[in-house]
Amino acid sequence: TIAQAQEIFRQKLNPEHQKRLAAITCEEALLRVANAIALCDPDNVFIHTGSDEDMATVRKLSLEKGEEKELAIKGHTYHFDLPEDQGRIVAQTFYIVNEDEGLSSLAKKEPRQESHNYMKQYMRGIMRGKTMFVGFYIRGPVGAHSAIPAIEMSSSTYVMHSAGLLYRNCYTDFNKEVARRGEFFTNLHAEGSNRSEDMPKARIYMDRSWQTTYSSYCTYAGNTLMMKKGNHRFATDCALYKFPGKELSEHMFITGINGPGGRITFCAGAAPSGCGKTTTAMAGDRFVGDDLAQMWIAEDGTLRAVNPEVGIFGILKDVNREGDPYLIKCLREEGTEVIFSNVLIDENKKPRWEGDGEEIPAWGNNYQGQWTKDMQDVPMSHPNSRCTLKAEAIENHDKARNSDPKGVQIKVITYSGRDSNTMPPIWVARSMDAGVAIGASIVSKATATEMGATGVKRQPWANAPFVAPPLPEYLQAQFNFYNSDALKEKPVMAGLNYFLTHEARGGSGKGLLGEKRDVHVWLGWLELYANGDVQALETPIGMIPKYEDLKKLFRERIDKEYPESLYTMQFSLYIDNIVDRIDMQTEAWKQEENASERLFRVYAEQKE
Ligand code: SPV
Ligand code: MN
Predict the structure, then answer these.
(1) What is the ipTM of this complex?
(2) Which of 14, 48, 113, 193 is the one with CA 20 to 30 A from 57?
(3) Contact call for residues 170 and 137 (beta carbons, < 8 A)
Protein backbone atom coordinates (compact mmCIF):
# COMPACT_ATOMS: atom_id res chain seq x y z
CA THR A 1 0.00 0.00 0.00
CA ILE A 2 1.01 3.64 -0.23
CA ALA A 3 1.30 3.75 3.58
CA GLN A 4 3.81 0.89 3.49
CA ALA A 5 5.68 2.64 0.69
CA GLN A 6 5.93 5.81 2.77
CA GLU A 7 7.31 3.77 5.66
CA ILE A 8 10.00 2.32 3.41
CA PHE A 9 10.94 5.82 2.26
CA ARG A 10 11.19 7.00 5.90
CA GLN A 11 13.58 4.17 6.65
CA LYS A 12 15.82 4.47 3.62
CA LEU A 13 15.80 8.12 2.54
CA ASN A 14 17.27 11.01 4.46
CA PRO A 15 14.88 13.96 5.02
CA GLU A 16 16.22 15.90 2.03
CA HIS A 17 15.58 12.99 -0.34
CA GLN A 18 12.18 12.25 1.25
CA LYS A 19 11.31 15.83 0.40
CA ARG A 20 12.51 15.34 -3.17
CA LEU A 21 10.41 12.21 -3.58
CA ALA A 22 7.38 14.02 -2.16
CA ALA A 23 7.23 15.96 -5.44
CA ILE A 24 6.25 12.72 -7.17
CA THR A 25 2.52 12.31 -6.64
CA CYS A 26 1.86 9.42 -9.01
CA GLU A 27 1.06 6.61 -6.57
CA GLU A 28 1.88 3.81 -8.99
CA ALA A 29 5.37 5.28 -9.42
CA LEU A 30 5.87 5.51 -5.66
CA LEU A 31 4.75 1.90 -5.22
CA ARG A 32 7.21 0.70 -7.84
CA VAL A 33 10.09 2.61 -6.28
CA ALA A 34 9.15 1.23 -2.84
CA ASN A 35 8.98 -2.30 -4.24
CA ALA A 36 12.42 -1.94 -5.77
CA ILE A 37 13.82 -0.71 -2.47
CA ALA A 38 12.15 -3.55 -0.58
CA LEU A 39 13.60 -6.10 -3.02
CA CYS A 40 17.16 -4.77 -3.30
CA ASP A 41 17.52 -3.34 0.23
CA PRO A 42 20.04 -0.53 -0.45
CA ASP A 43 21.58 1.29 2.52
CA ASN A 44 20.17 4.54 1.25
CA VAL A 45 18.40 6.08 -1.70
CA PHE A 46 19.36 9.10 -3.79
CA ILE A 47 16.53 10.86 -5.59
CA HIS A 48 18.04 12.45 -8.71
CA THR A 49 16.35 15.71 -9.68
CA GLY A 50 18.32 16.21 -12.87
CA SER A 51 19.86 19.42 -11.52
CA ASP A 52 23.41 20.29 -12.58
CA GLU A 53 24.39 19.69 -8.97
CA ASP A 54 22.96 16.15 -8.96
CA MET A 55 24.59 15.40 -12.31
CA ALA A 56 27.95 16.53 -10.93
CA THR A 57 27.44 14.51 -7.73
CA VAL A 58 26.76 11.28 -9.61
CA ARG A 59 29.85 11.82 -11.75
CA LYS A 60 31.97 12.56 -8.71
CA LEU A 61 30.69 9.47 -6.88
CA SER A 62 31.45 7.37 -9.93
CA LEU A 63 35.09 8.49 -9.81
CA GLU A 64 35.25 7.90 -6.06
CA LYS A 65 33.78 4.41 -6.39
CA GLY A 66 36.08 3.66 -9.29
CA GLU A 67 33.29 2.79 -11.73
CA GLU A 68 34.83 5.53 -13.87
CA LYS A 69 38.35 6.92 -13.97
CA GLU A 70 39.67 10.22 -15.23
CA LEU A 71 41.44 10.70 -18.54
CA ALA A 72 43.95 13.34 -19.58
CA ILE A 73 41.32 15.60 -21.13
CA LYS A 74 39.14 17.41 -18.60
CA GLY A 75 35.58 16.09 -18.56
CA HIS A 76 36.55 12.75 -20.08
CA THR A 77 36.31 9.50 -18.10
CA TYR A 78 36.48 5.81 -18.90
CA HIS A 79 34.70 2.72 -17.66
CA PHE A 80 35.52 -0.97 -18.17
CA ASP A 81 32.90 -3.70 -18.30
CA LEU A 82 33.78 -7.32 -17.58
CA PRO A 83 35.24 -9.29 -20.52
CA GLU A 84 32.00 -11.33 -20.65
CA ASP A 85 29.89 -8.16 -20.70
CA GLN A 86 31.04 -6.29 -23.81
CA GLY A 87 27.78 -6.30 -25.74
CA ARG A 88 24.12 -7.20 -25.34
CA ILE A 89 23.98 -10.61 -23.61
CA VAL A 90 21.23 -12.01 -25.80
CA ALA A 91 21.39 -15.52 -24.33
CA GLN A 92 20.67 -14.12 -20.87
CA THR A 93 17.90 -11.70 -21.92
CA PHE A 94 14.31 -12.86 -21.49
CA TYR A 95 10.75 -11.72 -21.76
CA ILE A 96 8.77 -12.67 -18.69
CA VAL A 97 5.77 -14.41 -20.19
CA ASN A 98 2.32 -15.31 -19.01
CA GLU A 99 0.86 -18.58 -20.20
CA ASP A 100 -0.27 -18.39 -23.85
CA GLU A 101 1.57 -15.14 -24.55
CA GLY A 102 2.48 -15.10 -28.25
CA LEU A 103 6.06 -13.98 -28.87
CA SER A 104 8.42 -13.39 -31.76
CA SER A 105 10.28 -16.49 -32.91
CA LEU A 106 13.51 -14.58 -32.20
CA ALA A 107 12.68 -13.70 -28.59
CA LYS A 108 13.69 -15.74 -25.56
CA LYS A 109 11.13 -16.21 -22.86
CA GLU A 110 10.83 -17.35 -19.29
CA PRO A 111 7.65 -18.11 -17.34
CA ARG A 112 6.70 -15.52 -14.73
CA GLN A 113 7.22 -17.86 -11.81
CA GLU A 114 10.77 -18.74 -12.82
CA SER A 115 11.76 -15.11 -13.19
CA HIS A 116 10.31 -14.42 -9.74
CA ASN A 117 12.35 -17.28 -8.34
CA TYR A 118 15.46 -15.73 -9.88
CA MET A 119 14.71 -12.36 -8.35
CA LYS A 120 14.12 -13.87 -4.91
CA GLN A 121 17.34 -15.78 -5.12
CA TYR A 122 19.63 -13.22 -6.71
CA MET A 123 18.17 -9.73 -6.46
CA ARG A 124 16.90 -9.83 -2.91
CA GLY A 125 19.32 -7.71 -0.88
CA ILE A 126 21.58 -7.18 -3.90
CA MET A 127 22.13 -3.48 -3.00
CA ARG A 128 23.10 -3.98 0.64
CA GLY A 129 25.98 -1.67 1.45
CA LYS A 130 25.18 0.44 -1.61
CA THR A 131 23.14 3.48 -2.61
CA MET A 132 20.22 3.17 -4.99
CA PHE A 133 19.83 6.08 -7.41
CA VAL A 134 16.36 6.91 -8.68
CA GLY A 135 15.94 9.16 -11.71
CA PHE A 136 12.91 10.38 -13.67
CA TYR A 137 13.22 10.76 -17.43
CA ILE A 138 11.17 11.02 -20.59
CA ARG A 139 11.81 9.26 -23.89
CA GLY A 140 11.06 12.17 -26.23
CA PRO A 141 10.42 15.91 -25.89
CA VAL A 142 7.98 16.79 -23.10
CA GLY A 143 4.49 16.94 -24.57
CA ALA A 144 5.31 14.96 -27.73
CA HIS A 145 2.59 12.52 -28.76
CA SER A 146 4.84 9.48 -28.44
CA ALA A 147 7.07 10.58 -25.55
CA ILE A 148 6.85 8.18 -22.62
CA PRO A 149 8.11 8.93 -19.09
CA ALA A 150 10.42 6.39 -17.48
CA ILE A 151 12.00 5.72 -14.10
CA GLU A 152 15.56 4.44 -13.96
CA MET A 153 16.78 2.91 -10.71
CA SER A 154 20.32 1.62 -10.37
CA SER A 155 23.09 1.09 -7.85
CA SER A 156 25.62 1.92 -10.56
CA THR A 157 26.85 5.50 -10.79
CA TYR A 158 28.16 4.75 -14.29
CA VAL A 159 24.64 3.80 -15.39
CA MET A 160 23.12 6.91 -13.79
CA HIS A 161 25.85 9.12 -15.24
CA SER A 162 25.12 7.65 -18.69
CA ALA A 163 21.38 8.15 -18.19
CA GLY A 164 22.03 11.82 -17.48
CA LEU A 165 23.86 12.23 -20.78
CA LEU A 166 21.50 10.18 -22.93
CA TYR A 167 18.01 11.07 -21.69
CA ARG A 168 15.89 14.10 -20.95
CA ASN A 169 15.35 14.52 -17.27
CA CYS A 170 11.69 14.77 -16.35
CA TYR A 171 11.67 15.01 -12.56
CA THR A 172 9.72 18.30 -12.58
CA ASP A 173 7.26 17.26 -15.30
CA PHE A 174 6.88 13.61 -14.31
CA ASN A 175 3.37 13.75 -12.78
CA LYS A 176 2.05 15.86 -15.64
CA GLU A 177 3.61 13.69 -18.33
CA VAL A 178 2.36 10.43 -16.78
CA ALA A 179 -1.12 11.94 -16.69
CA ARG A 180 -0.87 13.03 -20.34
CA ARG A 181 0.47 9.74 -21.64
CA GLY A 182 -1.36 7.46 -19.17
CA GLU A 183 1.66 5.22 -18.62
CA PHE A 184 5.34 5.12 -17.75
CA PHE A 185 8.18 2.61 -17.96
CA THR A 186 10.16 1.35 -14.96
CA ASN A 187 13.73 0.03 -14.94
CA LEU A 188 15.64 -1.56 -12.10
CA HIS A 189 19.32 -2.40 -12.38
CA ALA A 190 21.84 -3.76 -9.88
CA GLU A 191 25.39 -4.62 -10.87
CA GLY A 192 25.73 -7.10 -8.00
CA SER A 193 29.24 -8.30 -7.28
CA ASN A 194 30.54 -7.28 -10.72
CA ARG A 195 32.90 -10.25 -11.02
CA SER A 196 33.50 -12.48 -14.04
CA GLU A 197 32.70 -15.63 -12.10
CA ASP A 198 29.24 -14.24 -11.35
CA MET A 199 28.41 -13.39 -14.99
CA PRO A 200 26.40 -16.62 -15.42
CA LYS A 201 23.99 -15.13 -12.88
CA ALA A 202 23.41 -12.10 -15.08
CA ARG A 203 19.83 -11.70 -16.28
CA ILE A 204 17.81 -9.15 -18.13
CA TYR A 205 14.09 -9.50 -17.83
CA MET A 206 11.46 -7.54 -19.68
CA ASP A 207 8.00 -7.63 -18.19
CA ARG A 208 5.64 -6.32 -20.85
CA SER A 209 2.59 -6.48 -18.58
CA TRP A 210 4.15 -4.04 -16.11
CA GLN A 211 6.37 -2.24 -18.62
CA THR A 212 9.22 -2.95 -16.23
CA THR A 213 12.76 -4.22 -16.80
CA TYR A 214 15.08 -5.95 -14.33
CA SER A 215 18.78 -6.23 -14.97
CA SER A 216 21.42 -7.67 -12.67
CA TYR A 217 25.05 -8.84 -12.49
CA CYS A 218 26.14 -6.82 -15.51
CA THR A 219 27.24 -3.25 -16.32
CA TYR A 220 27.52 -2.88 -20.14
CA ALA A 221 25.16 0.02 -20.84
CA GLY A 222 23.16 -1.92 -23.43
CA ASN A 223 22.40 -4.47 -20.70
CA THR A 224 21.78 -2.06 -17.86
CA LEU A 225 20.56 1.28 -19.11
CA MET A 226 17.23 -0.21 -19.91
CA MET A 227 15.68 3.08 -20.99
CA LYS A 228 17.52 2.35 -24.24
CA LYS A 229 16.67 -1.04 -25.72
CA GLY A 230 14.47 -2.40 -22.88
CA ASN A 231 12.06 0.50 -23.15
CA HIS A 232 12.35 0.58 -26.92
CA ARG A 233 10.83 -2.89 -26.76
CA PHE A 234 7.91 -1.60 -24.70
CA ALA A 235 7.52 1.37 -27.03
CA THR A 236 7.23 -1.08 -29.92
CA ASP A 237 4.36 -2.77 -28.09
CA CYS A 238 2.67 0.60 -27.52
CA ALA A 239 2.95 1.49 -31.19
CA LEU A 240 1.49 -1.82 -32.28
CA TYR A 241 -1.32 -2.24 -29.78
CA LYS A 242 -2.23 1.24 -28.53
CA PHE A 243 -1.97 3.07 -31.84
CA PRO A 244 -2.25 0.34 -34.49
CA GLY A 245 -1.55 1.60 -37.97
CA LYS A 246 -0.67 5.07 -36.67
CA GLU A 247 2.59 4.69 -34.83
CA LEU A 248 5.92 2.85 -35.19
CA SER A 249 8.87 2.58 -32.84
CA GLU A 250 12.00 2.09 -34.90
CA HIS A 251 15.72 1.37 -34.57
CA MET A 252 16.48 4.38 -36.78
CA PHE A 253 18.60 7.50 -36.91
CA ILE A 254 16.97 10.81 -37.81
CA THR A 255 18.84 13.41 -39.85
CA GLY A 256 18.14 16.43 -42.04
CA ILE A 257 19.71 16.94 -45.46
CA ASN A 258 20.10 20.35 -47.09
CA GLY A 259 18.66 20.70 -50.56
CA PRO A 260 18.69 23.59 -53.04
CA GLY A 261 17.26 26.95 -51.99
CA GLY A 262 17.43 26.37 -48.23
CA ARG A 263 15.23 23.28 -48.35
CA ILE A 264 15.75 20.69 -45.58
CA THR A 265 14.53 17.12 -45.98
CA PHE A 266 14.48 14.77 -43.02
CA CYS A 267 15.37 11.13 -43.33
CA ALA A 268 14.98 8.27 -40.83
CA GLY A 269 17.06 5.18 -41.40
CA ALA A 270 17.25 1.72 -39.91
CA ALA A 271 20.42 -0.36 -39.69
CA PRO A 272 21.40 -3.16 -37.36
CA SER A 273 23.79 -2.30 -34.53
CA GLY A 274 27.26 -1.53 -35.79
CA CYS A 275 26.30 -0.82 -39.41
CA GLY A 276 26.75 2.93 -39.63
CA LYS A 277 23.66 4.60 -38.15
CA THR A 278 25.72 7.10 -36.15
CA THR A 279 27.99 7.98 -39.07
CA THR A 280 25.03 8.40 -41.44
CA ALA A 281 23.13 10.52 -38.93
CA MET A 282 26.08 12.86 -38.47
CA ALA A 283 26.75 12.99 -42.21
CA GLY A 284 23.42 14.77 -42.55
CA ASP A 285 23.38 18.54 -42.29
CA ARG A 286 21.05 18.59 -39.31
CA PHE A 287 21.59 15.64 -37.09
CA VAL A 288 18.66 14.82 -34.77
CA GLY A 289 19.24 11.28 -33.45
CA ASP A 290 21.44 8.26 -34.10
CA ASP A 291 19.67 5.18 -32.72
CA LEU A 292 15.93 5.34 -32.11
CA ALA A 293 12.89 7.01 -33.66
CA GLN A 294 9.29 7.24 -32.52
CA MET A 295 7.21 7.81 -35.65
CA TRP A 296 3.56 8.65 -36.04
CA ILE A 297 1.06 9.90 -38.59
CA ALA A 298 0.07 13.45 -37.70
CA GLU A 299 -3.37 15.04 -38.15
CA ASP A 300 -2.16 16.83 -41.28
CA GLY A 301 -1.25 13.54 -42.96
CA THR A 302 2.51 13.92 -42.56
CA LEU A 303 4.88 11.33 -41.13
CA ARG A 304 6.52 12.75 -37.99
CA ALA A 305 9.34 11.47 -35.81
CA VAL A 306 10.99 12.33 -32.53
CA ASN A 307 14.16 10.96 -31.00
CA PRO A 308 13.58 9.38 -27.56
CA GLU A 309 17.18 10.27 -26.69
CA VAL A 310 19.34 13.37 -26.38
CA GLY A 311 22.69 11.62 -26.36
CA ILE A 312 24.87 9.19 -28.24
CA PHE A 313 26.09 5.77 -27.12
CA GLY A 314 28.24 5.35 -30.17
CA ILE A 315 30.58 2.65 -31.40
CA LEU A 316 34.18 3.87 -31.52
CA LYS A 317 35.69 1.32 -33.89
CA ASP A 318 36.82 3.11 -37.06
CA VAL A 319 35.77 6.54 -35.79
CA ASN A 320 38.46 8.89 -37.13
CA ARG A 321 38.96 12.41 -38.44
CA GLU A 322 38.16 11.53 -42.00
CA GLY A 323 34.87 9.68 -41.58
CA ASP A 324 33.50 11.31 -38.42
CA PRO A 325 34.91 14.83 -38.14
CA TYR A 326 32.31 16.24 -35.71
CA LEU A 327 32.36 13.28 -33.35
CA ILE A 328 36.14 13.06 -33.25
CA LYS A 329 36.34 16.71 -32.25
CA CYS A 330 34.34 15.96 -29.08
CA LEU A 331 36.46 12.90 -28.38
CA ARG A 332 39.88 14.49 -28.85
CA GLU A 333 39.34 18.04 -27.57
CA GLU A 334 38.29 19.56 -24.30
CA GLY A 335 34.79 20.94 -23.83
CA THR A 336 32.50 17.92 -23.86
CA GLU A 337 31.66 15.48 -21.10
CA VAL A 338 32.41 12.00 -22.49
CA ILE A 339 32.44 8.51 -21.00
CA PHE A 340 34.59 6.08 -22.96
CA SER A 341 33.97 2.40 -22.37
CA ASN A 342 36.12 -0.63 -23.14
CA VAL A 343 38.83 1.32 -24.95
CA LEU A 344 42.60 1.10 -24.47
CA ILE A 345 44.12 3.67 -22.10
CA ASP A 346 47.64 4.55 -23.17
CA GLU A 347 50.49 5.78 -20.98
CA ASN A 348 49.31 9.39 -21.41
CA LYS A 349 45.80 8.55 -20.21
CA LYS A 350 44.51 8.91 -23.73
CA PRO A 351 41.71 6.59 -24.89
CA ARG A 352 42.55 4.60 -28.01
CA TRP A 353 40.50 2.31 -30.22
CA GLU A 354 40.84 0.22 -33.35
CA GLY A 355 40.72 2.37 -36.46
CA ASP A 356 41.14 5.72 -34.69
CA GLY A 357 43.60 6.67 -37.42
CA GLU A 358 46.55 7.36 -35.12
CA GLU A 359 49.84 5.60 -34.62
CA ILE A 360 49.44 2.38 -32.66
CA PRO A 361 50.71 2.85 -29.09
CA ALA A 362 53.43 0.60 -27.63
CA TRP A 363 51.31 -0.39 -24.67
CA GLY A 364 48.29 0.43 -22.55
CA ASN A 365 45.56 -1.02 -20.36
CA ASN A 366 42.20 -2.29 -21.49
CA TYR A 367 39.32 -4.25 -19.97
CA GLN A 368 41.47 -7.39 -20.05
CA GLY A 369 44.57 -5.92 -18.38
CA GLN A 370 47.81 -4.83 -19.95
CA TRP A 371 48.06 -4.77 -23.73
CA THR A 372 51.24 -4.41 -25.76
CA LYS A 373 51.77 -3.79 -29.44
CA ASP A 374 53.36 -7.20 -29.98
CA MET A 375 50.09 -8.95 -28.97
CA GLN A 376 49.39 -9.05 -32.68
CA ASP A 377 46.14 -10.99 -32.79
CA VAL A 378 44.58 -9.17 -29.85
CA PRO A 379 42.86 -5.90 -30.73
CA MET A 380 43.82 -3.01 -28.47
CA SER A 381 40.19 -2.16 -27.71
CA HIS A 382 36.98 -4.14 -27.86
CA PRO A 383 35.22 -3.85 -31.25
CA ASN A 384 32.12 -2.70 -29.31
CA SER A 385 33.95 -0.03 -27.30
CA ARG A 386 31.74 3.03 -26.99
CA CYS A 387 31.54 6.73 -26.27
CA THR A 388 28.68 8.31 -24.35
CA LEU A 389 28.03 12.03 -24.74
CA LYS A 390 25.26 14.55 -25.22
CA ALA A 391 24.12 14.97 -28.83
CA GLU A 392 24.21 18.76 -28.46
CA ALA A 393 28.02 18.53 -28.38
CA ILE A 394 28.02 17.50 -32.05
CA GLU A 395 28.48 20.54 -34.26
CA ASN A 396 25.61 19.81 -36.65
CA HIS A 397 23.14 18.62 -34.02
CA ASP A 398 19.77 20.34 -34.39
CA LYS A 399 18.88 20.82 -30.75
CA ALA A 400 15.83 22.95 -31.45
CA ARG A 401 14.31 20.23 -33.60
CA ASN A 402 15.24 17.51 -31.11
CA SER A 403 13.33 19.49 -28.47
CA ASP A 404 10.24 20.12 -30.56
CA PRO A 405 7.22 18.02 -29.46
CA LYS A 406 5.93 18.17 -33.05
CA GLY A 407 9.04 16.31 -34.19
CA VAL A 408 10.29 16.54 -37.78
CA GLN A 409 8.53 15.52 -40.98
CA ILE A 410 10.13 12.39 -42.41
CA LYS A 411 10.20 12.29 -46.21
CA VAL A 412 12.79 9.55 -46.67
CA ILE A 413 13.05 6.16 -44.98
CA THR A 414 16.16 4.03 -45.48
CA TYR A 415 17.09 0.47 -44.55
CA SER A 416 20.59 -0.93 -44.57
CA GLY A 417 22.82 -3.75 -43.37
CA ARG A 418 26.23 -5.28 -43.95
CA ASP A 419 25.70 -6.83 -47.35
CA SER A 420 29.00 -7.56 -49.08
CA ASN A 421 27.78 -8.95 -52.38
CA THR A 422 24.16 -8.41 -53.39
CA MET A 423 22.40 -5.05 -53.26
CA PRO A 424 23.73 -1.77 -54.76
CA PRO A 425 24.60 1.26 -52.61
CA ILE A 426 21.14 2.74 -53.09
CA TRP A 427 17.78 1.67 -54.52
CA VAL A 428 14.30 3.10 -54.07
CA ALA A 429 11.11 1.12 -53.64
CA ARG A 430 8.45 1.62 -56.28
CA SER A 431 5.57 1.26 -53.83
CA MET A 432 4.93 1.33 -50.11
CA ASP A 433 4.62 -2.46 -50.13
CA ALA A 434 8.02 -2.77 -51.81
CA GLY A 435 9.42 -0.38 -49.22
CA VAL A 436 8.12 -2.49 -46.36
CA ALA A 437 9.68 -5.48 -48.11
CA ILE A 438 13.10 -3.77 -48.16
CA GLY A 439 12.82 -3.40 -44.38
CA ALA A 440 11.65 -6.98 -44.00
CA SER A 441 14.64 -8.19 -46.04
CA ILE A 442 17.60 -6.60 -44.26
CA VAL A 443 20.45 -9.07 -43.90
CA SER A 444 23.62 -8.33 -42.07
CA LYS A 445 26.87 -9.81 -40.96
CA ALA A 446 27.02 -10.18 -37.18
CA THR A 447 28.79 -7.37 -35.32
CA ALA A 448 30.29 -7.12 -31.85
CA THR A 449 27.27 -5.45 -30.27
CA GLU A 450 25.64 -8.81 -29.53
CA MET A 451 27.80 -11.14 -27.44
CA GLY A 452 28.45 -14.41 -29.27
CA ALA A 453 26.75 -13.47 -32.55
CA THR A 454 28.27 -14.91 -35.75
CA GLY A 455 27.49 -15.30 -39.45
CA VAL A 456 25.08 -13.50 -41.76
CA LYS A 457 21.65 -13.06 -40.24
CA ARG A 458 18.27 -11.74 -41.26
CA GLN A 459 17.57 -8.51 -39.41
CA PRO A 460 14.04 -7.43 -40.37
CA TRP A 461 13.80 -3.61 -40.07
CA ALA A 462 17.02 -3.86 -37.99
CA ASN A 463 14.48 -4.03 -35.19
CA ALA A 464 13.88 -7.76 -34.81
CA PRO A 465 15.92 -8.12 -31.60
CA PHE A 466 13.60 -5.56 -30.02
CA VAL A 467 10.22 -6.73 -31.29
CA ALA A 468 8.30 -8.87 -28.82
CA PRO A 469 5.20 -9.78 -30.86
CA PRO A 470 5.34 -12.49 -33.52
CA LEU A 471 7.12 -10.97 -36.54
CA PRO A 472 4.13 -11.38 -38.91
CA GLU A 473 2.17 -9.03 -36.62
CA TYR A 474 4.94 -6.51 -36.89
CA LEU A 475 5.05 -6.98 -40.66
CA GLN A 476 1.31 -6.35 -40.89
CA ALA A 477 1.68 -3.23 -38.74
CA GLN A 478 4.27 -1.93 -41.21
CA PHE A 479 1.98 -2.51 -44.19
CA ASN A 480 -0.90 -0.84 -42.34
CA PHE A 481 1.19 2.17 -41.37
CA TYR A 482 2.70 3.00 -44.76
CA ASN A 483 -0.47 2.21 -46.74
CA SER A 484 -2.72 4.09 -44.33
CA ASP A 485 -5.08 6.62 -45.97
CA ALA A 486 -4.25 8.93 -43.10
CA LEU A 487 -0.65 9.06 -44.34
CA LYS A 488 -1.14 11.59 -47.12
CA GLU A 489 2.51 12.43 -47.74
CA LYS A 490 4.07 9.07 -48.44
CA PRO A 491 7.82 8.87 -47.81
CA VAL A 492 10.40 7.68 -50.30
CA MET A 493 11.51 4.27 -49.05
CA ALA A 494 14.98 3.10 -50.00
CA GLY A 495 17.67 0.53 -49.36
CA LEU A 496 21.25 1.61 -48.65
CA ASN A 497 24.34 -0.57 -48.65
CA TYR A 498 27.84 0.70 -47.77
CA PHE A 499 29.43 -2.72 -47.58
CA LEU A 500 29.78 -3.97 -51.18
CA THR A 501 33.29 -5.26 -51.74
CA HIS A 502 35.64 -5.05 -54.71
CA GLU A 503 35.94 -8.79 -54.53
CA ALA A 504 32.21 -9.34 -54.96
CA ARG A 505 32.18 -7.11 -58.05
CA GLY A 506 35.24 -8.55 -59.71
CA GLY A 507 37.33 -5.45 -59.01
CA SER A 508 41.09 -5.51 -58.63
CA GLY A 509 41.08 -3.43 -55.44
CA LYS A 510 40.73 -4.67 -51.89
CA GLY A 511 38.10 -4.03 -49.23
CA LEU A 512 34.98 -1.94 -49.64
CA LEU A 513 33.86 -0.28 -52.85
CA GLY A 514 33.84 3.39 -51.96
CA GLU A 515 34.58 5.14 -48.70
CA LYS A 516 32.77 6.34 -45.61
CA ARG A 517 32.17 9.92 -46.69
CA ASP A 518 30.35 8.75 -49.84
CA VAL A 519 27.30 8.66 -47.58
CA HIS A 520 26.99 12.43 -48.14
CA VAL A 521 26.32 11.66 -51.78
CA TRP A 522 23.77 8.91 -51.16
CA LEU A 523 21.87 11.18 -48.75
CA GLY A 524 22.15 14.11 -51.13
CA TRP A 525 20.71 12.08 -53.99
CA LEU A 526 17.79 10.89 -51.83
CA GLU A 527 17.08 14.49 -50.88
CA LEU A 528 16.84 15.49 -54.55
CA TYR A 529 14.84 12.40 -55.52
CA ALA A 530 12.33 12.83 -52.69
CA ASN A 531 11.64 16.35 -53.93
CA GLY A 532 11.38 15.41 -57.58
CA ASP A 533 14.61 17.14 -58.63
CA VAL A 534 16.28 14.08 -60.17
CA GLN A 535 14.97 11.16 -62.16
CA ALA A 536 16.03 7.55 -61.65
CA LEU A 537 16.46 4.38 -63.68
CA GLU A 538 13.79 1.77 -63.30
CA THR A 539 14.96 -1.77 -62.50
CA PRO A 540 13.18 -4.88 -61.18
CA ILE A 541 14.32 -4.12 -57.61
CA GLY A 542 13.31 -0.46 -57.78
CA MET A 543 14.74 2.86 -58.89
CA ILE A 544 18.48 3.48 -58.97
CA PRO A 545 20.40 6.77 -59.46
CA LYS A 546 21.74 7.85 -62.85
CA TYR A 547 25.48 8.17 -63.25
CA GLU A 548 25.43 11.87 -64.23
CA ASP A 549 23.52 12.89 -61.12
CA LEU A 550 25.86 11.01 -58.82
CA LYS A 551 28.94 12.34 -60.58
CA LYS A 552 27.72 15.88 -60.01
CA LEU A 553 26.88 15.20 -56.38
CA PHE A 554 30.27 13.61 -55.70
CA ARG A 555 31.90 16.81 -56.92
CA GLU A 556 29.51 19.14 -55.11
CA ARG A 557 29.22 17.39 -51.77
CA ILE A 558 32.63 15.80 -51.19
CA ASP A 559 34.79 17.24 -53.96
CA LYS A 560 35.64 13.86 -55.39
CA GLU A 561 35.77 12.34 -58.86
CA TYR A 562 33.37 9.48 -59.46
CA PRO A 563 34.57 7.30 -62.36
CA GLU A 564 31.94 5.61 -64.47
CA SER A 565 33.74 2.29 -63.96
CA LEU A 566 33.04 2.53 -60.23
CA TYR A 567 29.39 3.35 -60.88
CA THR A 568 29.16 0.29 -63.10
CA MET A 569 30.65 -1.92 -60.42
CA GLN A 570 28.40 -0.52 -57.71
CA PHE A 571 25.13 -0.38 -59.59
CA SER A 572 25.21 -3.39 -61.91
CA LEU A 573 22.54 -5.79 -60.72
CA TYR A 574 23.85 -9.26 -60.04
CA ILE A 575 20.69 -11.13 -60.87
CA ASP A 576 21.77 -14.52 -59.49
CA ASN A 577 22.67 -13.05 -56.13
CA ILE A 578 19.42 -11.10 -55.97
CA VAL A 579 17.31 -14.12 -56.89
CA ASP A 580 19.10 -16.21 -54.26
CA ARG A 581 18.40 -13.50 -51.73
CA ILE A 582 14.71 -13.36 -52.65
CA ASP A 583 14.46 -17.15 -52.36
CA MET A 584 16.17 -17.10 -48.98
CA GLN A 585 13.84 -14.38 -47.68
CA THR A 586 10.75 -16.08 -49.05
CA GLU A 587 11.73 -19.35 -47.39
CA ALA A 588 12.50 -17.68 -44.08
CA TRP A 589 9.24 -15.73 -43.97
CA LYS A 590 7.30 -18.86 -44.92
CA GLN A 591 8.56 -20.44 -41.69
CA GLU A 592 6.58 -17.82 -39.78
CA GLU A 593 2.95 -18.55 -39.14
CA ASN A 594 0.59 -16.05 -40.83
CA ALA A 595 3.24 -14.15 -42.77
CA SER A 596 1.55 -11.62 -45.04
CA GLU A 597 0.75 -12.56 -48.63
CA ARG A 598 1.57 -8.97 -49.50
CA LEU A 599 5.23 -9.63 -48.84
CA PHE A 600 5.27 -12.77 -50.96
CA ARG A 601 3.65 -10.83 -53.79
CA VAL A 602 6.48 -8.28 -53.74
CA TYR A 603 9.10 -11.02 -53.71
CA ALA A 604 7.37 -12.91 -56.54
CA GLU A 605 7.11 -9.80 -58.72
CA GLN A 606 10.77 -8.91 -58.26
CA LYS A 607 11.89 -12.45 -58.92
CA GLU A 608 9.83 -12.61 -62.11
C1 SPV B 1 22.95 -1.22 -30.37
O2 SPV B 1 23.75 -2.14 -30.21
O3 SPV B 1 22.05 -1.24 -31.21
C4 SPV B 1 23.04 -0.06 -29.53
C5 SPV B 1 23.73 -0.20 -28.27
O6 SPV B 1 22.49 0.95 -29.83
S7 SPV B 1 22.86 -1.19 -27.22
O8 SPV B 1 22.41 -0.33 -26.13
O9 SPV B 1 23.79 -2.19 -26.78
O10 SPV B 1 21.72 -1.77 -27.88
MN1 MN C 1 21.07 0.55 -31.50
Answers:
(1) 0.98
(2) 193
(3) yes
